Amino acid sequence: MNIPVKFRSEWRENNNGEIGPNVMLVAHGGVINIIYYIINGLKWSNKCATLCELSSTGIHTVEYISGSWKITDSNNIEHLQ
Length: 81
Hints:
Layout: H1 9-14, H2 29-39, E1 59-65, E2 68-76
Antiparallel strand pairs: 1-2
């Protein structure tokens, strides 16, 4: 599965390039849930249960590793402590 990632280069330049070139920000829990279904190879519909815990401002990290997408961090809320 080839998922194109687009970003605004101005945002990266304004942050001193501290992030990698491929970043996606998702603000809605529903979209995060769909991403979990896609990465796990499951069929999603609007009646599906949530696959992961979703906290406000929780960070979910998805990386392309060895030819496939993997969730490497799920609902990280360390920044809230």
